[in-house]
Structure formats: C-alpha cells, structure tokens
Amino acid sequence: MVLITLTPLDIHNKEFSKSFRGYNKNEVNKFLEKVVKDYEETIKRNIELKEKVEQLNNKIEHYQNMEDTLHNAIVVAQQTAESVKENANKEAELIKKEAEEESEKMIREANEEVKKVERNLMDLKNQANSFKIRLKSMIRSQLDMLDIDSWELTDDSEDEVVSEDSIASETDSLTVVDKANAADEEDEGDNF
User: Fold this and answer.
1) HEC profile of the chain
2) What is the model's pLDDT at position 138?
3) Chain CA centroid to CA 107, Å
4) pLDDT of residue 173
5) In this predicted structure, what is the pLDDT of residue 83?
6) Which of 24, 40, 134, 180 could form a disulfide with 8 if both were Cys (CB 3.0 to 4.6 A apart)?
7) How high is the pLDDT of residue 181?
8) Phi and psi angles of residue 109, each rounded to the nearest 5 degrees, phi first
9) Spatial distance between the Cα atoms of 111 and 117, rounded to a whole number of angstroms
10) What is the per-residue pLDDT for 21?
11) How far apart are CA 108 and CA 110, in angstroms?
12) Where are the chain's structural domains?
C-alpha cells in the first residue's frame, strides 16, 4: 500500500468539479483555507515534535553512553581496588616474611654469641683451674723442699748464725702461703 502524503498546497489547489446545486463556493473556499492553515500548523507541529523526539533520543543516547562510561569506570575502579588490595596483601606477606627471616637470623646470631661466650667462659675457668693446680703443685713442692732434711743445720755450718728476725719473717711468709692455700680450697668448694 502506497501512502500518499497530502500537502497544504495540494489542499489549497484542489479543484472540485461543479455540479448543479453544489456547495456554496465561498463557504468551501473559507473552509479549505482554514483546513490549509490548520494542516500547515499540524505539519509544523509534527516537524517540531520530530525534532524534539530526535533531540530527546540524542539525550537518551548521551545518557546511555554516560551510564555505560560510569558502569565501566565502576568496574575498572573495583578491579583496581581488588588489585591494590591484592598487592597490599602480597607486600604485607613479603614484609612479614622478611621480618621473620631477620628475627630468626638475629636469634641465630645471638645464640651463636651466647655459645661463644660460654666457650670463652669455660676456657677461662679451665685456665684458672689449671693455674690453681700448677700454683698448688708449685707451693706443695716448695713446702716439700722445706721438709727435706738437707735444710737442717749440720756441724759444718755452725759458723752461720740464724737470727730470730729471719726465722720470724720466714714463719710469716709460710703463714701467708698457708692462708692462701686455705682460701683456694674454700673457693674450689664454692665453684664445684
């Protein structure tokens, strides 16, 4: 079906055939002029409405584009947030791991230092004990030498005179040595 569009000019130029006892020509012309005028108004209004519809459609399309852009921006923001969160978690894990490794290293080094100090302390104790043993041995050997009979005065040495002062100083020295031995024995009892 072909749709024929009627224009105001078509209405205005329309000629009707004349017939006997037809319509009043002036009334028909006035009516046609009114129809032309109304039809022109309707066409103008129709064109305005079409333009307005097109503008509204453009706005709708613009808003739909904005909505799509906002939606995409939200999706990107969510992905970025997830990525940042994931990276922050990874970095936190890495920092935690490095801190644990550093603390384990420090504990290892501290334990090694403690063992080193304990070894040094043990070496010093051993050296001190060894020195005490050697000193005691030397003092005992000196005391044993004093007990030997060869120190006694024989008839050959009558010329030598032993004064009381020299005997007293030797006695004092022996007393100091005996006190030192007693103190060492007490220390050994405390340490062991």
Assistant:
1) CCCCCCCHHHHHHCCCCCCCCCCCHHHHHHHHHHHHHHHHHHHHHHHHHHHHHHHHHHHHHHHHHHHHHHHHHHHHHHHHHHHHHHHHHHHHHHHHHHHHHHHHHHHHHHHHHHHHHHHHHHHHHHHHHHHHHHHHHHHHHHHHHHHCHHHCCCHHHCCCCCCHHHHHHHHHHHHHHHHHHHHHHHHHHHHC
2) 93
3) 21
4) 60
5) 95
6) 40
7) 58
8) -65, -40
9) 10
10) 72
11) 5
12) 30-117
Under 8 Å CB-to-CB from 70, ≥6 apart: which residues? none
Residues 6+ apart with CB under 8 A from 35: 11
* Radius of gyration over every alpha carbon of the chain, rounded to an integer in angstroms: 65
CA pair distance 184, 190, nearest whole angstrom: 10
- Is the pTM higher than 0.70? The answer reads no
Residue type, 21: R
Nearest to 142 by CA among 163, 170, 184, 167: 170
Q: Which two tokens stand for residue 100?
A: 């644990």
Token reading at 136: 């005691």
